[in-house]
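Exam revision sheet. Question 4 asks you to relate a sequence to its structure. Input first:
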Amino acid sequence: MNRSRRLAPILELAEKKEREAAQLFAQQLKKVQAASQGADSLRGFLDNYHARYQSAGEEGFTVKQLMEYRAFLAKINNAIEEQASSLRQAEEMLEVCRRAWDQARQHLEGVAKLVQQANREEQALASKQEQAESDERSARKAARKTSFAD
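Answer key, structure tokens:
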């Protein structure tokens, strides 16, 4: 069995690993986008809540309303911090996935180059053998002509 055929399963495995790494990266990218949208949504909600509170505050608040407002603000801010933390973790994991994908892609490229090199060497050897056979046939033909000529 020639070298390129022996390397074929290794190439297929490298291709599979690269595809899987790319899929993981894409999945993690979606998670980052979702976490980012969640954070943006919470910040938008907080801004809207502030605006409504300010317009309602022109009429004045009771102590109870003020305490409820502050408690609700604390909850929203806590949710924003948690979402920001989730976003940071998702971004860190995205970077890990990106590096893994890069590594898998580089490995695939290396294996592919090795297979190409093996194919070139096999083709060169086949050409050399063909040329040697052709030269041998020509030499036999020439030898037959000279033996008939004698």
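Marking note for examiners. The radius of gyration is 36 Å.
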